[in-house]
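How a chain folds remains the central question behind the approach discussed here. In the encoding step, the backbone of a single protein was reduced to a row of integers, each denoting a local shape. We regard such an encoding as a compact summary of how the chain folds. The sequence in question and its structure tokens are set out directly beneath this paragraph:

___
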Amino acid sequence: MIRSIGHDADNATLEVEFNSGAIWQYYDFPESIWYEFEGAGSKGKFFHREIKNQYSESQVG
């Protein structure tokens, strides 16, 4: 489901690239949740449980 993830701590922005090629950004994303997401065994499950519909978002690619 997820190809890659990145976090800009200065802007508190999470960027997720999905296997479909779509790229989304999630705003006001806490650094503590980033570390949990980065270390999650299943990024897809973590994303659905902790991120999806929880933060302001926009598709950027």
Summary: The chain has one domain: 2-59.
